[in-house]
Amino acid sequence: MLIIVKRIYPMKKYVISDIHGCKKTFIALLDKIGLSTSDELYLLGDYIDRGPDSKGVLDTIFELQQNNYKVNCLRGNHEQMLLDQRSEGEISAWTRHGGLQTLQSFGIADGMYIPHAYIRFLTDLPYYLLVDDYLLVHAGVNFKVLNPLEDIVSMIWLRDWYKDVDKHWLGKRIVIHGHTPMSRLSIQYQLEQLETLPVLDIDNGCCFNREGMGALCAFDMGERKLVFQRNVD
Ligand SMILES: [Mn+2]
To answer: Which of 5, 77, 92, 183 is the most buried (most CB within 10 A)?
Structure first.
């Protein structure tokens, strides 16, 4: 009689933000956490700009999805700038904020020539996701309006919003976001203080050569643990 012993891997949920064209670092981090097709991966936007291979990061996401990995993607301000540039023309905020590196990775000089499949992907990106006890956004949540979930522009652009966090509105939810680069120590400190401030910024400034930065961070939502991968691009 043939007995097949299957190893059961516990299903994990991970969040990663601000990959910014660092394809090799992204893949190294996925390798480090040992992502499997039964896991769920949430990406909080800013896949493109600054780093060397923005197209490669998007292609990696498409490839993972085609190979049955559960990858859920949010919109970042850099994706929004790319889309806005296409409607506003040549002189834009996007080219000043790393858009040129993205155009280079596509081998083109104008955002109008980005293939349709990429534009469709970017256009369809949602601004937030509610997963278990987590509210996932790229940049922040505007607690100063009646319904914070309606202010989608703030979700991709907001900075310095912690003083307005409404714990009553959040209930037992925790906000996970990126957008504002933080040192590794600050991220670890925030994780320890979630009872006091239910907010975690996981952007470790992958493209920034500053003290405590220069790494990509994955947050394990179940275990509430952080995994860092230094930039290898
Ligand atoms: Mn951003």
So the answer is: 77
pTM of the entire predicted model: 0.94
From ligand 1's centre to the CA of 10, what distance in Å?
Answer: 32
Task: Measure 200 CA to ligand 1 centroid, in angstroms.
Answer: 15
How many structural domains are present in the chain? 1
| Domain of residue 17, CATH code | 3.60.21.10
pLDDT single digits (tens) 109-121: 888 899 999 999 9
Render the chain in DSSP notation, one character per residue.
Answer: -----PPPPPP-EEEE---TT-HHHHHHHHHHHT--TTSEEEE-S--SSSSS-HHHHHHHHHHHHHTT-EEEE---HHHHHHHHHHHH-SS-HHIIIIIHHHHHHHT-SSGGGS-HHHHHHHHT--SEEEETTEEEESS---TTSS-GGG-HHHHHH--S-GGG--HHHHTT-EEEE-SS---HHHHHHHHHTTTTS-EEE----TT--STT-SEEEEEETTTTEEEEEE---
Q: Classify residue 143: in a domain, yes or no.
A: yes
- C-alpha 44 – ligand 1 centre gap (Å): 9
Quote the domain boundaries for residue 22: 13-230
Q: Ligand 1 centre and the CA of 46: distance in Å?
A: 6
